[in-house]
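Figure 2 data, in text form.
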Amino acid sequence: MNLEDINAVAKLLSEPQKIVIIPHKNPDGDAIGSTLALWHYLKNRGQNAQIIVPNDFPKFLKWMPGQDQIMNFEKENSQSKALINEATIIFTLDFNHLGRIAQMEPVLIESDATFVMIDHHQAPADYAQYMYSDVLMSSTCEMVYNFIEFLGDEDKITPEMAICLYTGIMTDTGSFKYSSTTSRTHRVVANLIDKGAENTKAHNLVFDTNTPNRLHLLGCALKNMVILEEYNTAYITLSQDELDTYGFQKGDTEGFVNYGLTLHGIRFAVIFIENREEGIIKISFRSEGEFSVNEFARKHFNGGGHTNAAGGRSDIPLKETAEYFVSLLKEYKTQLNP
């Protein structure tokens, strides 16, 4: 964030504001952790702040301090719209295009609030007056830590803020194994632990709360895995019927796509998940090395994200989507076989 923007935001926050904080649709650990940490920070400064999520988030995140104060736009529509219409500042966290908030987009487009974006995804849109955008950052949570530090308030990070930030960094770095994890990331995490983030507690509550149904669904996903050795690629399909058989709950498929990359020699892993209610196939892409799943998702599947982690969607049936995906791999054979 440049000095001019830091000073401008600091000036805004020096006066009472009506603030709304918004993450992307289907918020993950980084989205929830970053919004909660910023909410705690702003409330502690005496600001009137409210988090509004586009839709519900996974149960394994519903333990973080303050999560019970989060408003759901789908379920509390009129209240949410009123708060957005009254807002003087809107923080958008962990996304950089208003299309990522689904049915909230028209409401935000009509807002007269000052927008502040904090995000680490590629190709940001220009809707925000003040942008802190850095694609090299490990997570939006690390960026929120930096944002608070930019404002001279690093010493005001509380244990509640610390564990929210820790959780987001932990989840978005794959427990600190992704290449976006830098020495600075580890220094931030160490400081958060010193400030009260219970790291073992965060890990257990996120990763060690499986249900039998989720483990059975994982078994189904792994049984469905197709390995394409010619392209160093593995993909998984999950149909709506399979999700229903194992009592799918939001968040149950989190991390399934990563299993493909645990196979020796695999550099590209994908999962295709049927969503009959929305009439789409949701897709997650992961890669190792320099193969950009961000570019792949943008070009072929109406998506995007990071170089090694991205999402997308398809409007054709599951079987046809997988077949289309396989047909594309010939074009990328050289990149996938370095």
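Caption note: The chain has a mean pLDDT of 96.
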